[in-house]
C-alpha cells in the first residue's frame, strides 16, 4: 500500500486482498481478512475492554447475510471508538458501508496505519523501559564503585564495571582478617524462580510495614502536637518546630529493604536480643522511666497495705 498525491495505490499480490477490495465485504474471504486486521489493531489493549466476539474459526461468510451485518456493526463500532476519520465507514445504511471498492480501500488504509502506529509505539515503549532499566543498573553499579573507591570511568559497560568491583573487593579482603566479613546468613544459591518469589514476598512485607510506619509517624505527630496545648508550650512553638521538623522530615514511610540486603546479610544479624535485657535498658532508661517505675511501686505497696 502506498499513498501518492492524496490517492491510495494498492498492489494486489495476495488473492484475498484482491477479493476484499473488488468484491466488498460480502465476498467469501473478505470478513476473515478484515476481522484479522481489526483484532490485530485491537491488541494489546482493546480486547481487554470488549473481548473477541467472532472466533476466527466461526467467522461470517457470504452464506449468512445476518452474520455479515453483525460483522459490519462490529467493525463500525470499533471504528467509532478508534475515532476513524472516514464518515462513510461509521454512518449511513449499515448494508452499504463496505460494498464499494473505495470504502474497502479506506478501511484497509485506516486499519493498516493504526496497526503500524501501535507497533511503533510498542517498540518505543519496550526500548525506553530497557534504557531506564539499564540506566538504573548503571547508577547502582556506579554507587558501588564510589563506595569502594574504584576510579571513575566513562564507560557504561556493566560487565566491565562489575569485573573492576570484583577485583577491588578481592584486594580489600586480602588485607583484612579471614573472618572479618563473616559467613553469609543465606547459605544457598537462589534460582531465578526463588528470587522472584522472594521479591514478591518482600513487596508484600514492604506494603505492610509502610502502613505501620505511617501509623507510627501519625502518632508521633499527634503526640508532639499535644505538648503544645499548654500556655507555657505555646510560647515555645517556634523552638519546638525548629528542633522537631528536621528530624520529622528525615523519616520516610517507605522502607529501603531489598533482596540485596538479604544477600549481603551476615550471620551476626540473626542474633536475638531481648528488649528488656540489661544492655538494652541501659540505652533506653531515662528520668521519666524512673519516675513512672517509682510511682507504680508506691501504688503497689499501698494496695498491698490495705
UniProtKB/TrEMBL annotation:
What domain of life? Eukaryota
GO cellular component terms, A-Z: tRNA-splicing ligase complex
Tell me which InterPro entries the record gives. Answer: FAM98 (IPR018797)
Family per record: Belongs to the FAM98 family.
Q: What is this protein called?
A: Protein FAM98B
Amino acid at each position: 500500500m502506498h499513498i501518492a498525491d492524496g490517492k491510495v495505490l494498492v498492489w494486489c499480490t495476495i488473492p484475498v486482498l484482491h477479493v476484499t477490495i473488488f468484491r466488498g465485504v460480502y465476498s467469501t474471504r473478505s470478513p476473515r481478512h478484515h476481522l484479522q486486521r481489526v483484532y490485530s489493531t485491537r491488541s494489546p489493549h482493546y480486547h481487554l475492554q470488549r473481548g473477541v466476539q467472532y472466533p476466527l474459526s466461526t467467522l461470517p461468510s457470504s452464506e449468512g447475510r445476518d452474520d455479515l451485518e453483525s460483522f459490519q456493526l462490529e467493525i463500525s463500532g470499533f471504528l467509532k471508538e478508534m475515532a476513524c476519520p472516514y464518515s462513510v465507514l461509521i454512518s449511513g445504511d449499515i448494508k452499504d458501508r463496505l460494498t464499494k471498492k473505495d470504502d474497502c480501500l479506506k478501511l484497509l488504509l485506516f486499519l493498516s496505519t493504526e496497526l503500524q502506529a501501535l507497533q511503533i509505539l510498542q517498540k518505543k515503549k519496550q526500548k525506553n523501559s530497557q534504557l531506564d532499566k539499564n540506566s538504573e543498573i548503571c547508577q547502582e553499579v556506579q554507587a558501588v564503585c564510589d563506595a569502594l573507591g574504584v576510579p571513575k570511568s566513562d564507560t557504561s559497560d556493566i560487565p566491565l564495571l562489575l569485573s573492576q568491583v570484583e577485583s577491588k573487593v578481592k584486594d580489600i579482603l586480602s588485607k583484612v582478617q579471614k573472618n572479618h566479613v563473616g559467613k553469609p546468613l543465606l547459605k544457598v544459591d537462589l534460582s531465578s524462580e526463588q528470587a522472584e518469589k522472594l521479591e514478591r514476598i518482600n513487596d508484600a512485607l514492604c506494603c505492610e510495614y509502610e502502613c505501620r510506619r505511617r501509623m507510627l509517624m501519625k502518632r508521633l505527630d499527634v503526640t508532639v502536637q499535644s505538648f503544645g496545648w499548654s500556655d507555657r508550650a505555646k510560647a515555645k512553638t517556634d523552638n519546638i518546630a525548629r528542633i522537631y521538623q528536621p528530624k520529622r522530615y528525615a523519616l520516610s514511610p517507605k522502607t529501603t529493604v531489598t533482596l540485596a540486603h538479604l544477600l549481603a546479610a551476615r550471620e551476626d544479624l540473626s542474633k536475638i536480643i531481648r528488649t528488656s535485657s540489661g544492655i538494652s535498658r541501659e540505652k533506653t532508661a531515662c528520668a521519666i522511666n524512673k519516675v513512672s517505675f517509682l510511682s507504680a511501686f508506691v501504688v503497689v505497696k499501698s494496695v498491698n497495705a490495705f
